[in-house]
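Researcher: We're teaching a course module on how sequence relates to structure. For the next exercise, students receive a sequence and then see the predicted structure as tokens, so they can try to spot secondary structure elements on their own. Here is the exercise chain.
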Amino acid sequence: MDAFVARQPILDRSNKVFGYELLFRNSINNNYCNLDGDGATIEVIKNSFINIGVDKVVGNNKAFINFTDNILKTDIFNILSPEIVIIEILETVDPTEEIVDICKNLKSQGFIIALDDFVFNTKYKKLLDLADIIKVDFRLTSGHDRKSVMNLVNRKNIKFLTEKVESMEEYNEAVSLGYSYFQGYYFSKPAIVSTKMIPENKLNNIKIIRELNKKELSLENIVMLMKKDMSLSYKFLKLINSANFSFRNKIDSLNQAVALLGETGVKRWLYYAIIKSISEDKPHIIISNSIIRAKFAELLVTKLSMKDDPFNGYLMGMLSMIDSILDKPMDEILNELFIPKVIKEVLTGEKTNEYAKVLELILAYEKGQWNIVSQISKELNLDENYIPEAYLEAINWAKDDNY
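Model: And here is the predicted structure for the students to work with:
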């Protein structure tokens, strides 16, 4: 499969995904620096809308796409929907009268216009009259400049988006300054701010995870703990009575449901349900990434025919962000959960093994670091063409609310 699109989430002030910036890539072996801006824009539009399908890439969210001067002057917008696409005008575009007229026309069609890597200059006055969103790079600006640009623009209709947010401190600063949208590696791997006690309503879920990882799994104990969570019990019985299983008679007993689903099925579904439950007060992208990583890792481990059960890959991906979910250090959490030693060593960074390489590949793929993905693929003797196929399958799997 030769269609590649890297995406980075953009969140609103409610920690909900507002959209994704689509990163320009056309090969797993190709870095963006080897592509010209015009070709990259065409490639990402082609891959997103034709080869893959934009619904699979961004779902019901907005797609931020960078546009160069040359592409703005084409008729490409005849095939793009203003309901989906946000036009991100690169900082290299000169705001000539022609460009301003083009933007006026795009606004009249309903497109949202964002100005990328914005640095205030009076030459942008006419574009500012048309802009809806201004992106400010937190790596290139200081605390003072991050606020002063808002004062200099001084337009109530414009919302500000901060990109390259890489820590909780920067995120909190952006919120306090009045930014509306947030983008950066922080949301792919949120930083640990402090150690907190696990809230009471999450303790039972942690006890279930602990029980799932004991050497001798007790389905009786699992059922007993599930009964303490009415929501979990209801969802479990709903699953077993769904069309996925098509049992002749309704199953209304947790003991019977657990027995029918089996040990691996119970483990898989409970991890999925519990991680979703304990992530309710966190940005949705965290749980989304956890679930995608779980399936992605399982598919890669299966493809590699690693000697251990592929469920270890699923478990590694599902727990890869649990430190951010519980606001506790990873090693402290895993010491309480009794997960397999080989996975604990990967998640705490204690040891490098095949699972660690798989996780490293997944993280690099999420960030569009194709050279690293290519290097690890060779080390694992993994067919690179399978990786985007597995990633798309993981995205669809997570979207379908599977277990």
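Model: If you want an answer key for the exercise: The longest helix spans residues 254-278. The longest strand covers residues 6-12.
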